[in-house]
Amino acid sequence: MQRWIVRMAEIQLKSRPVRRHMRIAMERQLKAQAKLRGVELSLQPWHGLLLAHAPDDSDPKAAADAFRHTFGIVAIDPAEQVDAAPESVADVLEARGFPEEVGSTFAIRCRRHGPKGKWNSQQFAAALGAEVQRRAPHLEVDLGEPDWEVRVALMPDYASVLAERIPGPGGLPTGVQGNVSAKLADESDLLAAWLVMRRGCRIILDDDADPALRAQLTDWDAALADDEWALKLNSGPGPGHAGRVWGRVGADLDEFEAADDRKVPLVRLEPLAGWSEGQLIELKHRFGIA
Fold first, then answer.
1. What's the mean pLDDT in 118-123?
2. Domains in the chain, ordered, with CATH?
3. 252 pLDDT exceeds 80?
4. Is 92 helix (H, G, I), strand (E, B) or coil?
5. Backbone phi, then psi, for 106, in 5-degree steps?
6. Which is higher by pLDDT, 172 or 286?
7. What are the DSSP calls for 189-247, one per residue?
8. CB 184, CB 205: distance < 8 Å
9. What is the C-alpha to C-alpha distance for residues 266 and 256, in angstroms, rounded to an integer?
10. Which of 56, 91, 134, 252 has the most CB within a 10 Å radius?
11. Contact in structure between 118 and 76 (CB atoms under 8 Å)
């Protein structure tokens, strides 16, 4: 079983009912993103974290790509689960290989999650550090700037040895702020749509949207893949709001015909207004098109 610890972004700052609504929306989106990439993902919310599991034969690169393209996630830690004992964690580290150079430095970064078990984080880190030095006496401790950093998530009944962290896009889960339409005629439309998506909006594309730009945006929202996914992932900020378009990105409002039953005016969104050339280049790097 492959495992990851998923850390949510600003969802955690919301009230309990809003937090639950947004978390469920993000779980649906993440599972859809993974499924489109051939990964069957199972998710379990636990003490502010999201524990993700996939079968051993799943493609870890495909799973990582799904995580990277799901808004609402700030970081993902691949995790190898072992007994909550310093010796068990040291076995994993030894199997992966200790640094060989004499005088290399290391640090144990341990963080406890959930109810307190046998160990607290400092006790476990000290015991694990002592065990590592017993097995590799050529290593020295440096808690400031170590050559080798060991990260451990300590749970009540087990420990997880964490691999290299996968950065997430942050923001709010797609769809929790309702639907916004977009023309998607050029690169600026694409970047503007991405920024709006990152704030929790689902983008509804015009029929004549540029196919190449649409394909790039589809990586970030499974609902753009086809009508079936769009129906499955239809969401909104609350009851009665699912499917309603409240804003427009990338075109004048007079080019868009809104529904007749609107109770609020349609809003034109210009998220790139005031951006410098340097900031746009940085945004392109974040999006992956520079």
1. 93
2. 2-81 (3.30.70.1510), 85-156 (3.30.2130.30), 179-287 (3.40.50)
3. no
4. helix
5. -145, 165
6. 172
7. HHHHHHHHHHBTPEEEE-TT--HHHHHHHHTT-GGGT-HHHHHHT---SSTT-TT-EEE
8. yes
9. 9
10. 91
11. no
